[in-house]
Amino acid sequence: MRWSRALIPTHKEDPSHAETVSHKLMLRAGLIRRLTSGVYNYLPLGWRVVRKVEAIVREEMDRIGCQELLMPVISPSELWQETGRWNVYGKELWRVHDRNGREFALGPTHEEVITDIVRNEVRSYRQLPFTLYQIQTKFRDEIRPRFGVVRAREFIMKDAYSFHENDDSLSVTYDAMYDAYCRIFDRCELDYRPVEAATGAIGGSASHEFMVLCDTGESEVIVCECGYAATDERAEGLIATVMPPEEPLSAEPVDTPGMKTIEDVSLFLGMEPWRLIKTIVYVADGEPVVALIRGDRDVNEEKLAGLLGASMIEAAPPAVVEKVTGAPVGFAGPIGLSGVKLMVDNSVEPLVNAVVGGNAVDVHIRNVTPGRDFSVDGYCDIARIGKGDLCCKCGKTLDSFRGIEVSQVFKLGTKYSDSMKATFLNENGKAMPFVMGCYGLGVSRTVAAIIEQHSDEYGIMWPMSVAPFEVEILAVKFKNEKVREASEQLYDELRAAGMDVLLDDRHDSPGVKFKDADLIGVPVRVTIGERGLKEGTLEIKMRRTGEQRDVAIEEATAEIVKIVEEARA
Ligand SMILES: [Zn+2]
After folding, report:
1. Ordered domains of the chain (ranges, CATH)
2. Spacing, Cα 225 to ligand 1 middle (Å)
């Protein structure tokens, strides 16, 4: 490609609204342009990178025997109603209707559609197992799109779905897919960690996310030196006990006028927040539930929902809180509650002489001991676990890092085949539900993640495997006849050798061209200028290492081809 004919609109300055490195550089290097909130155009340079990531994904999917297909972006609401997700998915499901008022979803994921295909076309265990995948545009009506393509409302994903006779067969494919993902992210030269994940709105029995390490990532991953790693939505662990031994005193009410928060009450009573027990009323699948946790800690709603087997959980509205506790929000406590399920976090168990809400306006109760002053059926782990807490596997202190989630894999089991009555006939002629797995990978997110890990103050430093161009020829003064001839000749020879080459043939100043070269980050930069030509040489510079050397013109093509071929993944 000749730069003079290309649409590569670069910017010198960081765009003011972009917060992350990848968002800034994708805009500055002319990879993307925002069309509207959370919706982006991929300009030619950005699209070349997307296509290269897609090619790696295709190769690795095909290598483990997956078949590519393409399903529509749009799917009828009836399918989503069959699985109940039309209601469960909430506002993130982008809904549209046609001229007749029929409702449709713009697909955020395709379990319903693929299950519909398979239930209509596959009859026998002899046809199992198999895996289908697509690379396609997906939609999610994010409340707050941000970080450019990382949290967009329209994005590109690879989604794969596997169908099996039983769990053992699913495990074989799940492991193969896990390995394929490792190869994909290795080839993209990403530093990543597979971690245990919550299953969320997709559901199923087991799940892993692949996290790319990145300080500005929106996900937090909890890790232990024993190898345990999980997202903060999922992480299990123990909260260290801070309480010294104490004699239990008699519980007694205490006036707390207008003191509604843990902070208010702890300041008012002059007690550390951990001496309070937080009482939170939730509504889980329409039923009120009360959760108790130590005052300085937070409930992990994903874990709570998982323990309850609930698909939807949210903080109860004030009217429900009043109905359950008999008091307005801010004075809820566990003593005297009846007819409501109590979920008590492990962190509450060691407390004595704690403070709880009094279930009456402006009243708390102090010197409360769990198990004595209110009954507890059993303690459970519903706490948000973080850095400094103790590992659930080995007891050592946990650490954490931030990351971008680039993919997630799920063992779905029969969640979708049961609700959609998708069955096959087993060896004995009996109808059985398909056992399923699903495997997502964010292609546009992966591009952003690569930039987060491969950039410096001057711009992007693409790995060869996904670079929009492998070689950039920077002709210092393209007007000069000798420079032009040498540049054109090298350009032709490299293209003939199968290289992706960008020739900067613009009539801009060398300063502009060098800055742009660093910004768009082509791995090999070849500089051709008058001075070098007089000595019969040109300069090769590696964008990532900064390593540069002069090479004789007649040896240049072979040398560059060798560099590129060695670096291709
Ligand atoms: Zn551990």
Report:
1. 11-188+412-451 (3.30.930.10), 252-380 (3.90.960.10), 469-567 (3.40.50.800)
2. 6
